[in-house]
Design brief:
Elements: H1 5-30, E1 32-38, E2 44-50, H2 55-77, E3 78-82, E4 96-101, E5 107-109, E6 114-117, E7 127-131, E8 139-146, E9 151-155, E10 158-161, E11 164-165, E12 167-173, E13 183-189, E14 192-198, E15 208-211, E16 216-220, H3 230-233, E17 236-237, E18 241-251
Antiparallel strand pairs: 1-2, 3-4, 4-18, 5-6, 7-8, 7-18, 8-16, 9-10, 9-15, 10-11, 12-13, 13-14, 16-17
Length: about 270
């Protein structure tokens, strides 16, 4: 079990829910008091009133619906993430806030991350969020370049998929933030086009060939010379998948970068 934000959110839902149920079925009936109101000399009417709720119960009833909705949305529909590094430049900037489709690769039980319903599998070119294989408490984001059974090779800064070099076209000098002296290319990853960066003067030390095992995925950063990815720590197991990144909803880096808002992630 991973003790991340989802886990603590689940604990919040559980605690507030238990307090609400316990109060409704056990404490509330015992707070009822009867007040006798005389309506005549010989008769009266008994009026039932409920004593004031304890402050803990008030907070639990207020927070439980909110926590439950957030937990269900994050667990089954969409989850927000912030980009902390430049390994996915130029596709994703440091400071981008992205949305991740949680049901793209199967509906999973929150916290346990166990798949219960099949909905689809990662495809080449997907920008995927996953739990880092060496430390599953950390979430990483990279691009899928290899599917189970694929033969992946990387030599002289050229990516090969199943023996064929992946085509790319030089776009010019990269002029965006977060990286200096980089060349930008448009790469065609077996039908999926996306931008990527290379550092012309930097020697390549991450060369090699890999066969992607079953139920695993080979991932790489778009900033090829500045990304620690499957070339270093291997393929990503299927049970580590979190979801598919699909949109930038916010950017904050010394202010809001309005042109990034609402951009679709390719």
């Amino acid at each position: 079990m991973i003790f991340d934000f989802s886990f603590y959110l689940f604990i919040g839902v559980l605690v507030t829910g238990v307090i609400w149920v316990f109060d409704s079925y056990y404490l509330a009936p015992r707070r009822i008091t009867k007040i006798q109101t005389k309506t005549s000399i010989n008769s009266g009417v008994a009026i039932n009133t409920l004593a004031k709720e304890p402050i803990v119960v008030e907070y639990a009833k207020s927070f439980f619906p909110v926590l439950l909705i957030v937990f269900l949305l994050r667990g089954f529909v969409v989850e927000p993430f912030k980009i902390p590094s430049g390994s996915m430049l130029p596709s994703l900037y440091i400071g981008d806030f992205i949305l991740v489709n949680k049901f793209a690769y199967g509906i999973r039980i929150p916290v346990l991350n166990k798949k219960i319903i099949e909905t689809g599998d990662p495809e080449r070119g997907d920008v995927m969020v996953f739990r880092y294989p060496r430390d599953p408490s950390l979430d990483y984001i990279k691009r899928v370049v290899g599917l189970p059974g694929d033969h992946i090779a990387y030599y002289n800064k050229v990516l090969y998929v199943n023996g064929k070099p992946v085509g790319r076209k030089f776009e010019g000098q990269y002029e965006g933030p977060g990286q200096m002296h980089a060349s930008e290319y448009m790469e065609n990853l077996v039908g999926i086009e996306h931008s990527m960066l290379l550092m012309p003067g930097r020697p390549n030390s991450l060369e090699g060939e890999y066969i992607v095992p079953e139920k695993m995925y080979f991932v790489m950063g778009d900033n090829r010379d500045n990304s620690m990815d499957s070339r270093v720590w291997g393929a990503v197991p299927e049970e580590n998948l979190v979801g598919k990144a699909f949109m930038i909803w916010m950017h904050w880096s010394d202010g809001i970068y309005w042109r990034r808002l609402g951009n679709i992630i390719n």
